[in-house]
Design brief:
The chain has 443 residues and is of the alpha/beta class. It has 14 helices and 15 strands.
Length: 443
């Protein structure tokens, strides 16, 4: 039912797009690499065809990345489809080699001779968080489908607690003369000045994974569409309300806890605010935030920190019956504290965003009927959307101030555990081909 639903939605959109253009139909729009970095641009009709993009995305890849979602607003959805239309699971060796070269080096020449320089600024990093590494590779693979992009320059702050480190990465890319910057601003408004400097230099900045540079009502927040090009990600309030609905239904009455990532990041703050407001009257949040502008349960999305956060919460509240968190593998890391404290993993409802296989396979092995997990999607592919949004802007297309990525909550089943996954720490919804994942995590 779910597969037929999303395929039907995409089919309708593609037919409608074809009817509105003079180019006719067109086949599947996945590019084919010919030499390292040189690709054949997507072909096919669609509302973005004049900018070299096709919205004729493979429905199977749309479902893989997002699940059985309803499309977001037309402008957002077209950019999402255009980004996925460039993704392929069948990459040749030349592209694999070039992708790994770019992944392993701060700067790489794509081999196309293109004058556009992509900058990638991650507040995390490839060696400190698997999700960040995969998102980086998604962006690299996307860039390699654009002959215009001749150079990729990447920086990573490795979750450094000093905002200056993150800001200096942005400034380094500005001085390097990049054409646009994609990344995740873990420090939010603390690096706003550097992002405004990029805007003043005419360099579009596109954060993904709902990386708002401050939420709209926060002091010092930047305005997407004015201070930076756009923000790619879910409607955070809707995501938080979805988490609350899972907890309200699964827990009904009792203690729950919520967790977040780096303090001050907009992703955690945005959904936490709305989740807290939507919790039912019988649900008791054991770790409320200090105020409306702060997050709670900060884990930095960093595994060495996570057990201490769980330990503090479970020692004081051993009867927690529900959790909400963006990070599935982080939840899996926290389960070790249940074992340590002798608390059974029972009568538990968990609402999550990402879908790392570690947690899902642990759940399947436990085979505990009173333990339920609901998740949305890993979201790694959103970095691809950021690259495509920036390239559209450079070509003169109108890009909305927020590219809204739709979401849907799904209940974990045994089928969600893939024991043959190349790396169990990688989201099942990632669009990075297995051959590349094997090389990324060979060690």
């Amino acid at each position: 039912m779910q597969r037929s639903r999303i395929m039907g939605v995409i089919a309708v959109l593609v037919l409608a797009a074809a009817a509105c253009t003079s180019g006719g139909g067109g086949g599947q729009a996945t590019p084919t690499a010919t030499t390292p970095g040189e690709t054949v641009s997507p072909t096919g009709a669609g509302p973005l065809a004049e900018f070299g993009e096709s919205t004729d995305a493979d429905p199977a890849l749309v479902e893989k990345a997002l699940g059985p979602v309803e499309p977001s607003d037309e402008a957002s959805w077209n950019i999402i489809l255009a980004a996925i239309a460039r993704a392929t699971q069948d990459v040749d060796q030349a592209t694999i080699d070039k992708a790994m070269e770019c992944f392993n080096n701060q700067e790489c020449d794509t081999g196309t001779g293109g004058s556009t320089v992509m900058g990638y600024a991650d507040g995390g990093g490839d060696t400190v968080n698997v999700w960040r590494a995969v998102s980086h590779m998604e962006a690299i693979l996307q860039a390699l489908t654009y002959p215009d992009i001749g150079t990729i320059v990447s920086t990573e702050a490795n979750f450094d607690p000093d905002p200056a480190v993150h800001a200096n990465d942005i400034r380094f890319l500005i001085s390097r003369g990049v054409s646009f910057i994609v990344g995740y601003p873990d420090m939010g408004v603390a690096i706003a000045d550097a992002i405004k400097e990029a805007d003043a230099a005419g360099i579009p900045y596109v954060p993904f994974s709902a990386g708002w540079v401050g939420l709209p009502d926060q002091p010092g927040a930047l305005v997407p569409g004015e201070d930076y090009l756009t923000v790619v990600g879910e409607d955070l309030c809707a995501l938080g309300e979805s988490f609350a609905e899972v907890l309200n239904t699964g827990v009904g009455g009792g203690d729950v806890a919520i967790l977040g990532g780096t303090p001050g990041n907009a992703l955690s703050l945005g959904w936490q605010r709305c989740a807290i407001g939507a919790l039912g009257s019988g649900v008791n949040l054991v770790n409320p935030p200090a105020n409306a502008d702060s997050t709670t349960g900060d884990t930095f999305w960093y595994d060495p920190v996570i057990p201490d956060v769980f330990r503090g919460l479970l020692t004081a509240n051993p009867d927690i019956r529900g959790w909400a968190y963006e990070y599935s593998d982080g939840m899996n890391t926290g389960l070790q504290v249940y074992e340590e404290l002798g608390i059974p993993v029972e009568n538990l409802t968990v609402a999550l965003r990402t879908d790392e296989q570690t947690l899902f396979c642990d759940w399947a092995e436990r085979n505990e009927p009173t333990y339920e997990i609901w998740y949305s999607a890993g979201g790694n592919f959103q970095s691809r959307v950021g690259v495509t949004a920036a390239m559209l802007s450079l070509k003169g297309a109108d890009v909305p101030a927020q590219v809204v990525v739709p979401h849907v909550m799904r209940k974990v089943t045994a089928a969600d555990c893939n024991p043959d996954r190349v790396n169990p720490f990688v989201s099942g919804t990632s669009l990075v081909p297995d051959e590349i994942l094997e090389l990324m995590f060979a060690a």
